[in-house]
Amino acid sequence: MGKATVQVLEANGFQVTLPPQKCCGIPMLGNGDFNGAKKLAHYNVPSFLNTIRSGSDIIFSSTSCGHMIKHEYSHLLNIPGAEEVAKRTFDLFEY
Predict the structure, then answer these.
(1) Has residue 1 got a pLDDT over 90?
(2) DSSP letter at 18?
(3) List of E strands, 1-95
(4) Distance CA 44, CA 78 (A)
(5) What's the CA gap between 56 and 15, in Å, rounded?
(6) Mean pLDDT within 7-11
(7) How far apart (Å, rounded) are the C-alpha atoms in residues 48 and 83?
């Protein structure tokens, strides 16, 4: 799915870069491991902030991961900077 997403974006003239990232944490959250999910979010948010502050948007092809990043990082996990990331994070089809 990831490769197909990159191919579609590049075929439409977008330059795709992949910021350093780890799992979004939704599997841990689903199993009640809030600390594990927070640890991953604390890694991802600064990386995503660097990406959006350099002028790029974050595009996701997995709806569950995108939901986690856009909503749960800020509302449930209270990760600093998550609201800024959410404003520049889009589902592939929304984009």
Answers:
(1) no
(2) -
(3) 58-60, 89-91
(4) 13
(5) 10
(6) 95
(7) 11
